[in-house]
Every structure is written in structure tokens, then in C-alpha cells.
Please model this.
Amino acid sequence: MNTTAMPTPQSDKPSSRYTILDREAVKLKSLLGRWESLLALLLIAVFAVNSIALPHFLDLYNLLDGTQNFSEKAMIALPMALLIICREIDISVAGTLALSSVAMGLAMQAGFPPATLPLVALACGTACGLLNGVLVTRFALPSIVVTIGTVSLFRGLASVVLGDKAFTGYPQLMADWGQGYFFGIVPREFVVLLAFAAVFAVLLHTTSWGRRIYAIGNNPDAARFSGIAVDRYRLALFMLTGAMAGLAAFFLTGRIGSTRPNIATGWELEVITMVILGGVSIAGGAGTIGGVLLAILTLGVATYGMSLANIPGIYMTIVVGVLLLVTIALPRLLRARSARA
Amino acid sequence: MKQVFQREPLLALMVVALVLAVGVKAPVFLSAGSLANLVTDSTLLAMLALAQMLVIVTRGVDLSVASNLALSGMVAAMLASHNPDAPLLAVVLMATLTGLVLGLINGWLIGYLGLPPIVITLGTMSVYRGLVFVLSGGTWVSAHQMPADFVAFPLTRFLGLPHLVWIAAAAFALFLFLSRFTRFGRDLFAIGNAPQCAGYIGIPTPRRLLWTYGLSGLVAGLCGYLWVARYAVAYTEVAYGFEFTVIAACVIGGVSIAGGVGSVTGALLGALFLTVIGNALPVLQVSPFWQSALTGLVILAAVLVNARSGRKGSRQILPLHKLEQAAH
Model:
């Protein structure tokens, strides 16, 4: 009878799983299918406007250098996307980053060889993530409250160790990774970011782990009843986020060459903004790594253009805020639905 | 046992115990002047926490309060410094009104468009913070540019107490009344407990949310003036990151982030608790750098305690599974 409507070729693509409401299945599908293309258009538009308005914009060296401004944040945004898809959130990433950076500073002073410093940062970040994860899973606490608590804790511990001093004099190895280039032109951070983006995209979109993350985000109870070890996934994702924050600490510390108490302040909200702008639903269960990457690049290009045009960085926060509000409000306004949900 | 020891008396007891414990170590902490300082220091946080509590009760969160505070404060400071002859009341009203409008923007987006509060207030937080810079051109408005009565008002004493304390007390009474005895306040709890059911029984959720966030903005605006006047300086980074402190005060006060649970007294006590910690450290000659770490520990302890005592409520659909799942 209704064979014509049944299996479209779309149905086993990842995009088909974003259909949450029965009634609007087709419409939502096309709408969310367009999210990434919308972002891509936005990226192209920003790029075009910048290259027309700014004579020095289209300089390959400059452009690639500009990626350093967001590479570390973007490294954290990748696992954060998974976490938000899973209906959790981690506000403590910037605190984790600060503490990991301090841990590296302490390790360096204790005479650890340079090659072990990234491991120290990773271990510290993972431990922070473990604490978050244990509190969220073992004690069934809401992750936003737990991580608001731990961000104070982590940043507090970092500033207790640092006092009013700063760690400087990091080994050359860290500067090599934080400031160095591949082939003399591509910043290493950017390459690492792209590599991780690929890994995360494969993880989320092609493996059963990824599909289970979506399942948990759509309905944790149903996911649990269908045999998914929900808490194990949550714990793993928190640890992954912590580890990536530790990695970002390694790169950021290497790039700026010091650990100061105000390292990465306010990053948690910037990272979350990147993820939301990338089309990840804060209610969980929807979003793609591709979208997040596009959002990262769009924001990066816009920031870079504004800095070339000598516009103070704080204007960028307005642009980011407005972008966030518009991208989330526009679809709703277009559908012109009254707000009951 | 858990029924006997309600959360608020317990928390009040803890605040008193903490104050006494610090007093044993450093008797100067218990002097009248020091305690009066403590109360004065807690007022701004307490007022913001009261308003935030109503927001959190509706299953929302207002991350934009600190930015709103900074913007309203800057409006007040610039208005006062450009028109030294303007009556103080007009300046205060202007700040409050600015805050209200900023809050209503949040409320409209969240209430009438049904957008997630955390995302909306995250966005407006950036926008408002940026607008402070645009408005001020990145400059500071410092004490010598502000009229004397503008700066003096918050700490001027009336019947022995600073105006700040009176305003906070009035806000406390207002919120107590609002949350306990008005339809508006009770509706917010209903919305937080079961948004769908609230709709079915005819609660105008969008309108309620609009005014809840409006109220939060209004308080932030008023606090914006008070903050700027009290510290006699207005700049872009005023109260940077303060939104988390406000939310922390609510969480310590037993307001459930999942909505529907919370009390005005709890939020007030939470704010007091945080202020006691902040004020005790210098007295105890502990490095002030410990403040943030201790705050974090207190928040975690508070949520753990709240989770233990509050989980057996009526809201769980699958209580056993939920708890079992959490425990294994």
C-alpha cells in the first residue's frame, strides 16, 4: 500500500536519525539537513566578505596562522559535542585546562623529561574528567551542577599552586608543538585538530558507539532498557573531554609559553557556543561533527577578519552571541509555532 | 530524621557553625563590625540568588545576570557622570529598567519561542557583555567621575543599617511573598515540576517565563547600580564570571537544577554561606587563592547532600531503576 513512502535512500544515512517528531519528519529532515549547508554558506559568505573588504585577508600564511587562535578551543569542542549529544555538559573544561597546565609546570620543575609533559597533561585532564564522570554517574547528579562545582575546584587548585606567580621556561618541545609548523606553513595545532576531527567524526558517525551516544541523548531510559551501558558511556565521555582539555593545555601552554592564573578564562562558554552553533541540540540526541567543525571555522574566519580590520576582540563576542541567538531562534520563528514545549 | 531536619534550618545551622568556628580561630571575625561587613557583602549575591532561584525553579537558568549587571551598571554610571544633576532616583530607575528590558528579551525568547534557556542566556550573556564595551568605548568610569550621592547611597546608613541591607531585606520579603502566596510564584513551581501538566491546567507558561526572566533582569539591573556605586568603578569586566557564583549559591541553598524545588530562604542562606567562606579566608590568613577551590568543594558537597535527601520525592517515574542504575 504505502510502499512508495517507505525506505528512501536517506534512511540509513546519519542525517535520518534526527527525525524526532513523527508529524514533521520530512520537514525537520530537510531543515536539519540544511543546517550544515547553512553553516557552509555562512562560512563562504564570511570568507567572501572578508576577502573583498580586507586586502590582506587572502594570504595563505596569514590565514593558516589565524587558525592557531581557535585550534585549542576546537580540540575541546569535539568531545564536548559528543557530551552534549549525550545530554550531558561539561562546564569545567577551562578549569581542567588550567589545572593540567599547572600540572605540567609542576612536572617540569620536578625535572620530568620534556617528552613526558604531554602525558602529564593528559593524565591530569583525564583525572579531572574522571571526577566529573564519577560524580555524575555514581551519584546521579545533574552534570551542569557538578561541573559548575568542579570548575571552581579545578581553577581554585590551579591558582592555589600558582599563587601570584607563573610557570615559564617550558622546554623547546612544547614550543615546537604549540607554535611550530608542518612544511613550514601549516600550524601543527591545526593539523592535530583536523586529525582529531576526523577521528571523532568516524567515532560518532560510523561506529555503534556513536550510534549509542545518539540513543542515550534521545532517551537515556530507553537506551538503558535496550541494554546500553549508559553510565559507562557517560563516564567515558567525561574522561575523554577531560583528556582533550589536557591536550589543549599542552598546546596552549606551548603556544603562549607560560602558565598564568588567568589561562583560558571564559573558554567553557566559547567552547559550548561553538558546539551549539554547529547544530548540536542542547536537548541531546542531535548534531554532527561536520557541523561543529564548520561552526569552528566560521567563527575562526570571522575572528581573524575582525582582527585584521582592527576591530577589538570584544565585538566578536557580540557577533558570536547574536549568531547563536539568530541561528537558534530563526528556525523557530520561521516555523511560526507557538511555544508550548 | 530527614523529615525532622529540614534543609533550611540545617543550612542556617551550618552557616552559624561556620561563623562560630572561624570566630574561635580568629575572634575578630565575631566583632560587630566584621559581622556587619559580612551581611553587607552578601547582599548583592543574595539578591541575585533570589531572582535566579525563581528562574531555576522553572527548569531554566539565567547565565546572563552578570553581563546584565555590568551593562545596567555602566548605563547608571555613564548617566550619572554625564548628568551630575540628575536625581539619584532617576539613575537607579534607569539601571533597573535597563535590566528589566534585557531580562524581558531573555524571557521572550525563552517563553514565547520556547528556546532552551541555557543557550539563549549564553548568547545574550556574550551580547550584553559586548554592549558594555560598545557603550563605554572600553573606558572606565571611576569614582571621581561619579556624583558623590551616587557613590554614597549603597553604604549610607538608615536606622543603623546600610541601604544595601534594607534593599536586600525588602527583596527577600518580596520574593518570599511572591513564591509562597501569589499565583505567579506557585505557577513557577508547577511549571518546573511538570511543564506539560502546567500547560494543561491553564497556566500561561510563556507569560510566566517572560516575567520570571524579566524579574531576574530587573534585579540584575538594580544590583548593577548598587555594585557600581558600592565599588565606585564601572568597566567592561565588572562581575565577570559572577553568574556561576549566583547559581552556586542557589545550588547550595537546595534549589534543584532539575526544576520545581527550591526556597527563597535556601537561596539566601546559600549566598550567606558563600560570603562567609569568602570573608573568613583573609581573617584566617589562608591564601585567598583557596576561595575558589573551597567554593567548588562546598558546591559539590551541597549537591551530594541534596541528592541524598531529595531524590525520594514524587517526581521519579522509574525510581528503582533510576537509583539502581546510578548505584551500579
